[in-house]
Structures are given as C-alpha cells and as structure tokens.
Amino acid sequence: MGPYLSRLARLGIPAPSSATPWRESRLSTFLRRGPHTSALHQFKSFLFEDLLDMVSKGYWAILPYNAVRHLPHLKLSPAGVVPQRTHRPRPIMDYSFTGVNEASLQLAPRHAMQLGYALPRLLQRIAYANHRHGPPLLMKLNLSDSYYRVRLSP
C-alpha cells in the first residue's frame, strides 16, 4: 500500500470515467442549477474560504466555465456543505447527484477502503493482539476533507 500512496502523492490520482462525454445542454443544465442551498446561503462564506485554502495549497484550481467548457470529458457536480455537530462544517461535492460516482472507474486496491464493520474489526485486532509488545493502544484520527486534499492528475 505504501508504494501506491507514494505514487499518488507524486503524480496525483487519475479520475477516469466510463461515461460518454456530456452534451452542451446537459452541462448548461447543471451549471444553471448551481450549488446546493447549503453552499449558496447558509455556509457561503465558509465554503469560499475553504475552497481558497485548497487552491492555495495546490489541491484545487478554480477556472472560469468558459475556459473549460470545451473539454470533452468535463463533468459538473454541485457543491454543498454538511453541518457537523461537534466539528467545523464539511464541504462536499455531490458526485452522486450528476451520476459522476457511478461512471467513475474504481482503480484503488479493493482493501484500500474498508468502510463498515469497523467496530468488529477493531475488537478482533485487540483480542488477537500480541501482548508481548504490551497492551494495545488506540488512536482516533479525524481525516476531515482528506478526499478533497488528494491531488488529481491533470
């Protein structure tokens, strides 16, 4: 897994799609629809600041639509913001709304994403830990927005 992650850090992550190029009319429809109301009203300034932070760190680029509208595989997805009870809000790009998720080719190793059943897996690891190394220690990391901080390969 280490060499794979190292390659992604150096080269960025590809984002191939099985979808046919969108027609101008479909792009225009989603462009007119715009972002989710959470991004447009309630969290507008938060999202603006957060996106500028991602641009300044090289994770994102903000381009005028006229500069990219001719790209054959351009897809648009609405921005949104999900409020969090104990943390700062979480920005999202709704790739499921426009069908981008379904058309994205899965390139990551199958074992890279293990969502669900986390507690049983954790308890099993604790139960079968080698106690010659001492008692098991736990650490919780909050990887907020980590997906949006992976560079894409242009």
Task: Please tell me about this protein's structure.
This protein has 154 residues and is mainly alpha-helical. Helices cover 37% and strands 5% of the residues. It has one domain. A two-stranded antiparallel sheet has the order 1-2.
Gross morphology is globular
Helix content: 25-40%
Radius of gyration from CA coordinates:
19 Å
Strand order of the largest sheet: 1-2
Number of helices: 7
**How would a crystallographer describe the biggest sheet?**
2 strands, antiparallel
Give the helix/strand class: mainly alpha
What order do the helices and strands follow?
HHHHHEEHH
Kindly state the number of beta strands: 2
In terms of DSSP E residues, the strand content is: 5-15%
Mean pLDDT across every amino acid position: 85
Contiguous low-pLDDT stretches (5 residues minimum) are none
Termini distance?
A: 23 Å
Please indicate the count of domains. Answer: 1
